[in-house]
Amino acid sequence: MSLHKRLETDVLIIGTGLAAISVALHLPSGMNALLVSKGTRFETNSVRAQGGIASAYAEIDHRGHFEDTCQAAKGRINRSVVDYVTRSGTEAMEFLLRQGVLFDQSEGEFLLGREGAHRLPRIYHCGGDETGKRIMETLMPQVPFPILEQTHITELIQVNGQVVGAVGYSEGEPIEIVARATILATGGVGGLFAASTNDPLIQGDGIALAFEAGATIRDLGYIQHHPTVLVHAGRSEGLITEALRGAGATLVTKNGDRIMADHPMQDLAARDEVAKRIHEVRKREPVYLDTSNVVDRTKRFPTFVEKCEKLNINPDLVEIAPGIHFLMGGIETDLSGRTQVEGLYAVGETASIGLHGRNRLASNSLLECVVMGKAVAEQLKLLPERSVKQIKRRPGTLRSVTDRLSQVIGVEMDVRQIQESLDALKDWTLDESGQEAEENRLRHVTACLLLEGARSRLTGEDESVEQVAVTATTGGIFNRGYRTVGHHE
Ligand SMILES: Cc1cc2nc3c(=O)[nH]c(=O)nc-3n(C[C@H](O)[C@H](O)[C@H](O)COP(=O)(O)OP(=O)(O)OC[C@H]3O[C@@H](n4cnc5c(N)ncnc54)[C@H](O)[C@@H]3O)c2cc1C
């Protein structure tokens, strides 16, 4: 493959979601950066965020937020990380307000939402349920760096073990971007699944890229299902914010029986518990969200109401089902966003810092993006100089994995089916090179890692995916030439 275009920058930020933008807006002056997005700059999960951002800004201290996060997580957290992020909630809100984000207020007081497993209303929102869109529309124009849209990064460049940039395709043309630091802000994995709340472009690419570069990946078995994805004519039609339940909506059967009535937190129990209950009931009959008693529904939840109007359904009672929503695990980093590979950082949903455990507390991810974006930018002040030699690349492989993943990874999982899928993916062979082949290679690597994560979660193995992957390599999963990074000279 001949490389037409070569760019150089101090910091390459792969992504244009809130995590990426937070890094960009916190970088020290004098430092150059370049941001890239797979689609347009606004095709991100950040834009889709509805409920809001969790912060103890109005509380005496962050202790309640810290405890609720730990409680919802059900283990697998680093308490000092939870302390750091929840403590930083006040600073994050001050930053967003300073940048001009207009959070909903009434008579000079912020209107706070309440969501699952929060014992207090502490969710700051904009435009009712348009929080992500409004935050991103406010912050994006303030980014002082170029943004390359329609640019799909397919491989990291490594020299002597260090990541020194990335290659991919920009508007279909090969591109090489050399950088002193490379930041993966590529979001979660939902786009790999059929029933998901995510933007379809968000497919876990960062995880495959980091894995291929030798970074540790962990906890991929922990994927959060959002309890309420709107179902219409048998199809998933996107997320319905949990804040509706915070405002009084309830989960019911056709007869009006409340399915969460016996839970101490009722309809606002932790997401995994609500999703599980819905899944169980749906084996017998459909489950609905009754929003008929939500006060000011149209004003507070315009996204929901407009969606119902578009589908020509009555918003009072809508059928729902759980859908793939958020990846708790990801690329292991420290509290400065550093991975174990020199020159490579990860931030936002693609990273795993030990905040979300087995179950993310609602609205903690926008907070993580803002807080950790700043932490990464601060770390970059210490960036060493680096020069890069000519780079040679090898092309990759493969085809779509969505159907297979969607069939076996869900609220309920079966270890035998997971193993069968893994075995089937092992047998897939190399295709020709080119952009499509390389995109498919990334999907394939992420899919194998997700299946490995699910298998180790189900079998109770407590090892990181890096360890699992080493086993897998000897077993043949990654021995077909997929691990192309490391072959650069
Ligand atoms: C419907 C919905 C509602 C949500 N509501 C809330 C909420 O109310 N509160 C909350 O805290 N969280 C919410 N979340 C979760 C939250 O929105 C996300 O976790 C968060 O926005 C992730 O931000 P990010 O910057 O890490 O990634 P994203 O915003 O997903 O951005 C990822 C970026 O990476 C780019 N990218 C990916 N792969 C490549 C590649 N190979 N090459 C180049 N670019 C690439 C994409 O183009 C994109 O720009 C919600 C999520 C969804 C889907």
Automatic annotation (TrEMBL):
Keywords: FAD, Flavoprotein, Oxidoreductase, Pyridine nucleotide biosynthesis. Pfam families: FAD_binding_2 (PF00890). Pathway: Cofactor biosynthesis; NAD(+) biosynthesis; iminoaspartate from L-aspartate (oxidase route): step 1/1. It is an enzyme of class 1 (oxidoreductase). InterPro entries: FAD-dep_OxRdtase_2_FAD-bd, FAD/NAD-bd_sf, NadB, Succ_DH/fumarate_Rdtase_cat_sf. It catalyses: L-aspartate + O2 = iminosuccinate + H2O2. SUPFAM superfamilies: FAD/NAD(P)-binding domain (SSF51905), Succinate dehydrogenase/fumarate reductase flavoprotein, catalytic domain (SSF56425). It comes from the Bacteria. Residues 10-366 form the FAD-dependent oxidoreductase 2 FAD-binding domain. Transmembrane segments: none annotated. Its cofactor is FAD. Its EC number is 1.4.3.16. Belongs to the FAD-dependent oxidoreductase 2 family. NadB subfamily. This is L-aspartate oxidase. The lineage of its organism: Bacteria, Bacillati, Bacillota, Bacilli, Bacillales.
